[in-house]
Each structure stands twice: as structure tokens, then as C-alpha cells.
Amino acid sequence: MSAAVEVAEKKKSSAMYAGRPYVLLERGWLAFRSSTWIPVVTGFVEPVLFLLAFGYGMGNLVGDVTAGGTTIDYTLFIAPGLLANSAMNGAIYDSTWNVFWKLNESKLYKTMLSTPLGPLDIALGEISWALIRGLVYSLGFLTVVTVLGLTPSVWALLAIPAASLVAFGFASFGMAVTSYFKTYQQMGFINIILLPMTLFSGSLYPISVYPDWVEKIIMVLPLWHGIELVRAFWFGNITSGVLVHIAYFVAMIAAGLFVTSRRLRALFLR
Amino acid sequence: MNTGIDVPQIQRYGALYIASARLKSMSKWKAIIAAVDIGNPLFYLIAVGVGIGVLVEKGSGTSGTNGIKYIAFIAPALLANSAIAGVMDETVFPTIEGFKWRKLFFAQNATPITGRQIALGVYLSALCRAIFSVSVYYLLLIAFNVVEFGSSILLIPIAVLGGGAFGAIILYAAAKIEKDDQFFNILGRLVIMPMFLFSGTFFPLSSMPIYLQPIGWISPLWHATELGREAAFDYGISNLMVAVHLTFLSTLVAIGITLSMRQFERRLAK
Amino acid sequence: MSKPLISVRGLTKVFGDFTAVNGINFDVAKGESFGLLGPNGAGKSTTMRILAATSTRTSGTVEILDKDPEKFGPLVRAHLGIVPQEDNLDGELTVTENLFIYGRYFGLPKKFIKAKIEELLEFAQLEEKRDVKVQALSGGMKRRLTIARGLVSEPDILLLDEPTTGLDPQARHILWDRLFRLKEQGVTLVLTTHFMDEAEQLCDRLVVMDKGAIMAEGSPQGLIKQYSSKEVLEVRFGSDRNKEVAPQLSQMCERMETLPDRLLMYTEDGEKLLEQIAAAKLHPTTSLVRRSSLEDVFLRLTGRTLIE
Asked: What is the span of the domain harbouring residue C197?
């Protein structure tokens, strides 16, 4: 019996899952090792630029902000929101454009599915890779913010796992959506949807400036939950509301994984 | 000999042939173009203009914006930025596609059409997109009562001039580069984004630390924005500065288009 | 014969209202080199995908090493080496990285794969390209690497879909040589092809497929013997005259096929037939005597040529 068959018989693998999502991380690392650092560096620069522009430029016009009963400096206010945002961006980039490429151009997933790997291995592995990328962005951003003296307390460290959960949620959701897209035009709409969500979800100003009904709509959007979650940990304001945000992301992750693995099976194992 | 090909005619109007071919291919993307060019600035206007506008009013009032309401203050900048982004899309993508991905320019150049005409044609078609989007966006500004109809109509040519100034330079850059894999990343995140954030778009340039202000001075967006504010609201800029802005932008157009035409000719002859 | 490795009965695959595979039966024995020969669209690739456990069937039974690929997909795939029609190597990785990560997809230990890579690089004659990104390889090298990749897991069966399509003649011969070695080592090969010379070179046994059905089955020599004569005389009289002389010529041989550009005359002795034609004062512009091939078998069975 060959080693490969031994592995396959020993592990009780199902049609969906061989229990090896980590090989996708290995693959991601091999590919990343020899690729350029530019996308990572630039992805990290973006939220820093926002922080500088809105913090220092806008800070002069705005002054202090009152949110959730406390009044804080505007720059301090936007930092956690931008952290959540950068976690989302990192995760979305890897789970949409990269996934689109591997689905439709390089056919990498098709190749993987001709081995004993299952769709859930791919979904979990790929989403974890996006999550790691989101985590790297978050850590970079936190470092900059700390150097600038904008970190309120050690609580801010807890914002990192919170941001990772946000990244996981968006990666999972992003991959699920991408698995339905066939053309570059359709992919273009992802950005068109992301921008308003980014702008309206309260990273740059408290959503209480809007009428009630607008606020309610925003509170349905995932990024608002992400920003609120990260902000709660950032300032150490942990209330029961945090559980709602966590539940929101757990549901998003589960739904995304479910849809993605089903869809991969429908695409390549029919 | 009568082949139906009028060579002198082509030599005279070649650039227009190229431009019309480009416009035809753009029309396939019209839904995305409209969504991006009009949607993006509109989202910024509503989110930042209204959302942060509330904060600014509570903070410094209109004292930081020369007495102009915040939402009106950012409108000319968003208009110019929309022109810049649109012109960039229509110069960078077709140029790299034409030279590298599909090598369309080489086929066009095999007819009596010259490289200089191709460069000019691509540029003109990009300006057409800017004129279209900016005009629609201007009408929306009027409809939402953000600006008053009148001399503010000058916002349209000013924004197109700003887009044209940036586009002429970027057309040259796109024709010059050989390796494109990281070009979009660098362009988007290290040129467009900082320019957008630090050109006095959301707050006066002078409210930034002095070491960040030079970004604005060399940015076509800042020059177009200042001109636009003057045209729409009597912003209080001296005639001398108006002349400086106009000269800066027109010089960029002249230099950029001269360099581009030469570069197109050279690269096609290679 | 011991129990076959692959056993297919009444296999049918329907896409919408198109029947790609229509109730086919065949067995593949251990160590055998088995071919599916047929033109594009004959249903070969669909059959291969079902064998590879990456496609479901509409009806019929398939057993690979006693297992239904539909029920035991991952386990069946662990027994198989796949060489798809289009090169789907990982373009972001180097030659060795491609082999390495593919082994990891099978869950193989890193140490095992590293040792295996050396062996496979030698087999694929890619030692000097080991750290080159695969985009920089030639078509023939890519195909050899794809085959080597399929062997990382030491499969019981290697499935090759059109292994030499798109390669130049030299690259094809190198590839055939490599596949021949595998055959000698006792690897079971299942391959599809629309090249009759490839089928003759590589297959111990093959089925001729057309429009989703199996038309004939046997060894290349056996099929030729059964469905064709020993020799073929190809004659051309120029496109207009071919038709004119056809009735007269068809009297002279066992069987004749009229193609758009030439006439194929089936006979035991081509030279003798050519003399007869000359004696009848018919002078072809060109003539060629050759041995019968699978192409002729296919023509006989379907009335069409393999490559159209």
C-alpha cells in the first residue's frame, strides 16, 4: 500500500473534508515567500494614511467627539475604527481577487480537488490565510498607533483578536460571494459595495449623527459590528453588547464556510 | 488604385478613430463606470460631508473652511477627484493592455495610424469619460443644493482640467513601464490614495503640518480643488494664485502629452 | 485474470439533454496500459473525470480497487495520479515546490516527499530546472512535470488525459519514452488520446469511442487485424478526378474509403494493387503504400477520420 493510501485510510476523511486545511497555508507561504512584499506593505500603509489625514488634518476642524457618553480627541476616536477597517481590507483582498484568480484563471482549486483534499479543506485553509494577512495588517497598524501615542491602555491589545475575528468573518463571506462570480465586471461590484459600507459604518464619525432609520440600516452591516467590537476592546468598554457583535461574526464565518465548501463541490465535483 | 482607404484622411483624424474605438469599448462597462464615477464621490459626499459635517459644525463651525459649509467645501474636491480617477482608469488600463496584454496598439500601428495619434486618441477618450461623469455629478450637486447654479458651472471644465493634468502624466508612466505586476498596487495605494487624502480635499491644506503640505503643492487635485472652490463659492483666493493653479495644470497637460506621444511612438517602433 | 483494478459497467453521463457517455463497459487489469481512443467530443474526458472521482455519473457502476469513486472520493483519489489535459501546474511556485506541495495535498510526510522529489526530477529530466518557476518551462517540460507530480503519491493508477496534445514531435517522443518506462515499472496507465500513433505506441489494450459509445475493444494489433486489411494504398488523382475513377478502383480491392482529397484502398498487398492500377491505365498523381493503422479502424467503424 502506498503512503498516500495509508494516510487516506487512517484519517476518516469525508467527501467534504480530509482534515488538512493547513496544507493551503503551506502553499500560501511557498507562493508568498517568492512574491513581492509590495502588496502587503501598501495594504498596511493605507489605514496609516487615513489616520494621519483624518486625525491630524480633520482633527483641527472637528476637535473632540462625543461617542457613547465619553468625549475624546477625534484622532483617538477614529483609530480603532480604522483598525477594524484595515483588518477587513486585508481579508477581503485575499478572499476575493486571489480566490477569483484561483477559481477561474489558474484553476488551482480544481487541481487540489483532484487529490484527496475536500472542499472544506480549501475553504478553511484559504480563509485562514486571509485571516493571517488581516492579522499582520492589524499588528502593523497597532504598532504605528502605539508609536504615535494613540493607544489608550493595554486593553488595546485585545483589539487584535477582535480584529482577527472581523477578518475571519469577512474572508469567509468574501470567498463565498466570489465563488459565484464568473467575470471581472462582477468582481468590480465588490468594491462598489465595500466603499459605502466603509464610509457609513462609523469608523470616521459616530453614526448617531444620522437619523434613526439610517442608523438602523447601518447597524445591520457587518463592518459596523466589526468597528464596534474592536472599539469596545480598544477602550476597554466591554459590555454585553459585545456578545452580539461576536455572535454576528461567528454566524458570518459559519455561513461563509458552509456556502463556500458547497459551492466548490458543485463547481468541481459534479 | 481605389481601395477605399483615404490615407491623408487617416493621417488627419487618426486620433479620433482611436478615441471612438476606445469609447465604444468603454460603453460595455457603462454600468460600472457610472457606479464608480458618480457613486464613489456621492458616497463620500453623503458620508463624510454629512457625517463629519455634523462634527465640524459642532467643533470649529465654518471658521476653518473660509465660511463655507463643510459639505460644500468638499464637493469641488470630490468632483475633481472623480475626474482624476476616471481619466486614470481610461489611460492606464488601455495603455498597458495595448502594449502588453493584448498588444492592440501594435495592430493599430500597422495601419497608417501613428503612435502619436494612438496616444492622443487614448487621452481624448479618457477626457470624454471625465466630462460625462463630472457633468452628471455636477447636476447632482445642483439638485441636492450643495452648490448654486451660476459661475459654479466652471467646476466642470476645472475638474476635467485636473483629471487631464494627472492623466497626461500617468499616460506617460503607463506607456513607460515594462513590468506591470505591482504597478496598480503602487499607483492606487501610494499615489492616488495619499493624493486624495492630503490635497486639501477634506480640510484646508494649511491645517496639516507643514511637512505634509508639499504633497498638495504638487498634486493636480489640490490645484483643481482650489480653483473649483473659487469658482463655486468665492473662496477668497487671489488672482495670482488662480493664475498659478491654471498654469500648473496646463503645464502638466502639455508636458505629459508631449512625453506620452513621444513614448508611444518609440515603444511602437521598437 | 485476477480481479481488475477498474471495472466499469453501463456507465452513462448526461448533461442536460446531451448524453456524453452512453452505457459503456470496460475493465482495466493491474499493470495494464489501457487507452480510450476517439475524436474530440467522444466522451473520453468525461469518462476520465468520472474515473478520477471528480465527476458524478448519471447511471451505471464504477469500481476502482473495489470502491465506488462517488462514495469514497478522497480514498479513491489517494490511489490515483492525475495528469489533466491542460497543464494546471501552480504558476506561482517553482518545479520542486510544485512537487512538494502536491505531495502535501495527499498528506504525505515532508521527509518522504523530499526524497521522492529527487527521484521524480530525474525521471522528468528536470534536475537542472528544479528551482525555476514553472511559467518559464517549455510545453514538454511542463507536461513531464505534470506527470511527475501525478507520481508523487506513488499511485496505483495513472490517469492521463491527452498526454501529448499540443506538444511538438520531439517533446512527444521524450514523453512517450517516459511513459514507456512507467509501463515497464508496472504502473497501470489509463490514457485518452485522439492520436492513433500514440495509442499504438503506448496501449496494450484500448477501446475506440465515438459519440459516447464504445465501438470496438482490443489490442492495437488485434483491432487492426479485425477491422482492416494488412496494407493500405493511398492514391490521389486530383480533387475532381478522384470521384470519377472511384467506381472503377473499388472493384480492384477488398474495400475502399473515399476521402475529400484521396482514396484509401484496403488490400493485403499494396504494391501489387498499384501495378494493377497502372495496368488499367489509371495514373494517380501520387501514391503511397502503408500498413493499416488505428486510423483506418476508426474510419471503418465510424466512417469518419479521427482528426477533422
From this structure: 6-225
> Which of C225, C242, C257 is at the close of a domain?
C225
Residue B51, C-alpha cell as written in the block: 457625517
How many structural domains does chain C have? 2
- Nearest partner of A189 among A178, A175, A201, judged by Cα: A178
Residues B244, B228, B37, B61, Cα dihedral to 10°: 120
CA distance B126 to chain A (A): 19
Q: Which residues pair with C189 in a beta bridge?
A: C33, C158
Q: What is the CATH number of the domain that holds C65?
A: 3.40.50.300
ipTM tops 0.95: no
A53 contacts on B by Cβ (under 8 Å): 197-198, 202, 208
| Digit-coded pLDDT (tens) for C277-303 | 888 888 888 889 999 988 889 888 887
Q: Which of B54, B65, B212 sits opposite A209 (nearest CB)?
A: B54
In a domain, C190, yes or no: yes
H or E stretch covering B205: none
Domain annotation covers residue C307: no
Give the nearest chain A residue to B187 (CA atoms): A42
Q: What is the mean pLDDT of each run of 10 residues along chain B (270 residues)?
A: 69 84 84 81 88 85 82 94 91 88 85 90 94 92 90 94 96 87 78 90 88 91 95 88 96 96 91
**Are B54 and A205 within 8 A, CB to CB?**
yes
The answer to whether the CB atoms of A269 and C54 lie below 8 A apart is: yes
Instruction: Report the chain C residue with the minimal C-alpha distance to residue A113.
Output: C54
Q: Is residue C1 included in any domain, yes or no? A: no
Among residues B153, B157, B169, B156, the alpha carbon closest in space to that of B219 is found at B169
Q: Which of A130, A131, A136 is nearest to A95 (CA)?
A: A130
Residue with cell 471612438: B20
Amino acid at C121: L
Full-model pTM: 0.83
Instruction: From residue B2, give the alpha-carbon distance in Å to each of B5, B7, C52.
Output: 8, 11, 61
Domain coordinates in residue numbering, chain A: 28-268
**C281 and C239: one domain?**
yes
Same domain as C245, residue C213: no
In a domain, C35, yes or no: yes
How far apart (Å, rounded) are the C-alpha atoms in residues B135 and B39? 13
Ranges of each domain in chain B: 12-269
Of C225, C258, C282, the residue at which a domain comes to its end is C225
Sign for the CA dihedral angle at A231, A236, A240, A242 comes to positive
Nearest to A169 by CA among A98, A95, A83: A95
Q: What is the mean pLDDT of residues C10-33?
A: 93
For residue range C117-140, what is the model confidence (pLDDT) as tens digits? 999 999 999 999 999 999 899 988
Quick check: helix, strand or coil at residue C282? coil
Cα–Cα distances in angstroms (integers) from residue C139 to residues B27, B107, C83, C167, C189, in the given order: 38, 27, 14, 6, 21
